[in-house]
Each structure stands twice: as C-alpha cells, then as structure tokens.
Amino acid sequence: MAGHEQNGQDFSTERDSGAGPEKQLCPLRNGHGTGQPGRCRGGAAEFSTLLANHPDYTAGYFMAAQTLANAGRIAEAIERLKAGVGCAARTGNSHALSEMQAMLDELDR
Questions:
Q1: Residue 7 pLDDT level (bands cut at 50, 70, 90)
Q2: CB environment 23-61: b (16+ within 10 A), e (fewer)
C-alpha cells in the first residue's frame, strides 16, 4: 500500500505493519494537521482506510460519520452510519448501535 504523507509525517508504517485500529486512528483523534481535536484534513479518506483494514471496528463508523457530518457531508454521514449500524448488529455492540441509530435518526429527518 502506498504511503500517505501529511504535514511531513508518513503514516504508511502504521497501516502496513498491521497496527490495530486504535493506533491507526490516533492521528485522526488528535486532529492531526489541523490543530483542532476531531478535525483532520483528509479525515474522511483516513477513516475509509481504517474501516477497510478493520471492518469490525464499530467506533470507526461513528467517528467517520461525525467527521462527515461536521464537514456538511450529510448524505455520506448517513451512509457511514448505516454501515456502522450493520457492523454493530453483526458484532453485538448494542451501545454503539443505539448511539449510531440516534445520530442516523437525527440526520435523516
């Protein structure tokens, strides 16, 4: 997989080394590159990579949807939430399922 460089930092090592989702998510949680926690330039693409590598990481769907919604990309956030609801149901994570369903209901009005 090709490396991804952001502000001079290459994240390919984390992705290519089989790092768990929490380690891969760290730059996104810390708002890497923006100075604002939870806001990341290219965050939606990073979440797509995270979820492609870790499709059962339920929290990733919710955080991706929040990132998309905050960027005004509501239709994409709704799609990510629908996928997250499916993941939460598949993995038995009822708490995440209820949180994502609540956000989905709010966005899908």
A1: very low
A2: ebbebbeeebbeeeeeebeebbebbeebbebbeebbbbb
